[in-house]
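chain below, 156 aa
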Amino acid sequence: MTATPKLLAQADRQCQRSGVRFTPIRRRVLELIADTTGGLKAYELLDLLATEHAAARPPTVYRALEFLIDQGLVHRIESLNAYVACPCPDHVHGFQLLICRRCGRVEELHLEEISDQLSQQARELGFRVERQTIELLGHCETCLPSAEGNVRSPHE
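prediction:
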């Protein structure tokens, strides 16, 4: 699987609108992340990047990740300490992540009413939300049948 030209074009537009540089390293980190069905950890990214750029070091990857997150192009999966490409960076939104525990596939939801309700409740309590991360761990439809086969009945 390769990063879609549409995703990269969206990233280019996002960076132009924000007046920031979408450098070749930042672009390549986004491509590597987008080329996976699940999240990639920073050191996995570094290993992949180092095969192409001998000078790649941890700060290079972390700076690129920070930039991509700030631009809304990548999300950090807190529970896995990994990163996944945002399928719709043109849209400012709250999001939720569905993470398959078996295959690692990550899907993004956009239930803005949930994000809005949480933000509203936080404001009422005098709390300013800087970032919301809602992760739902479970099994995707492909992995669910084999996962259910491993579940024992309470009567066994």
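The radius of gyration is 18 Å. The chain has a mean pLDDT of 87.
thats it, cya
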